[in-house]
Structure formats: C-alpha cells, structure tokens
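Deliverable D4.2, example record:
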Amino acid sequence: MRYLILLRHGKAEAFSPEGDFARKLTDRGRRDSLWAGQHIRKHLVEPALTISSDAARALETARIVSAELRGAVALVTENRIYNATVNDLLAVINEADDAVTTLIIVGHNPGLEELVWALAPSVPPDFHLSTAAFATLETDSPWQDLVPGSATFRGSMCP
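Output generated by the structure prediction step:
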C-alpha cells in the first residue's frame, strides 16, 4: 500500500516586490504549517519523501513540516510543481522511487485540488484544500502506474 499526501502551502503574504514566486509565509502560515507537520507525523508510514514546489511559500511550508517529521522524510524541490496541471503533478509522482511508501507533495491550488479530484473518485462533493490543508490518498499502484481514478480518498485535514 502507498500513501500520497497532497499538502497545500501555508498562508502567504499577499504581495512580494519580487513577484508571486517569492511570496513568503505569514505568521499564520508558519503556525498552520507546523500544525500540518504535527498531524502528518501522527499518520506517517515510512519510508517517505517530500517533493516541494520551489516557490518560497511552498518550500518554507515543506521545511517546517520536514522539521516536525524529525528527519523521517527526505526533502527535494521540483520546479514543475509551481503552476502545475494535473498532468504535470502526475509526471512528478510517476517518477518517484517505488521504495517510497509515503509521498508528500507540497504545492499550490488549483493543481493539487484538481489532482485529488482526478485520482480519487470517492472525494466528497464539498472537498476543498485550503492553505496548510492536506489530503491523504491510498493506492495499490506503483508510483509510475498512478493514473486518474487509481487512488482512494482517505480524508483531509485543515487547520
């Protein structure tokens, strides 16, 4: 069994002089990211890998979550996650090592939310991925075989 945790970045500042990509987390975003890390730690199935967007707010979220997981998770960045479509996100996931049983993707809406809808036909109709919220999906498929409809929605949590 494999677990896919799709985590939206924490609340970010509304504006950065350097542009959208450089927007950093607010105090609330840091607190909520810590909350997410604590909750993911309780449900983590190892070995795990976190793949994060390299946008400032997502990477900051991933680092806070990784610190909560106390070294149980490797963290890598992937520039394809920023402004990603469902197909972009699936391509990233399909490249993950099959030895990884829990994969955490830290990214952005609308891509992450759309990916949940695409992968898991059992998503509740009112599902929404707010900032620092995460959805957990389960699959029997190897990562390279993950396709729309091949996962089961196991729940979501938001701060």
